Amino acid sequence: MKRLWLVCLAACLPGAVVSLGQETAGEVLDKARQEFTAGRYAAAEIHLRELTKVVPQNVQVHAYLGHALFRQEKFAEAIGPYEKALELEAGGAKVSEQEHRILVDQLAMSYGIGGQIKKAFALLDEAIRQDPDYPLNYYNLACAYAEQDDKAKVLSNLDLAFQRKANTLQGEQMPDPRSDSSFQKYARDPDFVGLMKKLGYQ
What we know:
The chain is mostly helical.
């Protein structure tokens, strides 16, 4: 699971003076940050939903609402905020490379878990076109191909992912495909086992 940061929200919230009842947006933001950092994602979700109403063009608020939902395993609900964040980014909202990669990664997983495989393919194909060096784009694509029982593309994309493992985010590690539920059907497949040995798994 990615490390997710709320600290960037403060810089992106305009003035923090918008009123939310008796509280300012800045005060609600502080509560959201505290709840998220403490792992109280349901409480953070409530505050972030409030913020989306008063700062609807804030890409970070939508992204972190998606993250709060994702952490609660509300994958289908996370899709909307993630899609909105990407839409705002495409319209000119600024996010860092790390934030963009996490956003795409989490949305791709939400699509996959939610059975929206065509959307997962479209998102990941575009992600690879724009960011061909990030390994999780290929790893997630392998997961999507596993849903379609396309073993050849599963293996080729896993290989491509691990060729780029040096490009993971700081603090991030490549998942172990052997313990990933997406690939359990291949656990005893000779080609899969051979690839795992090639990648250094014994």
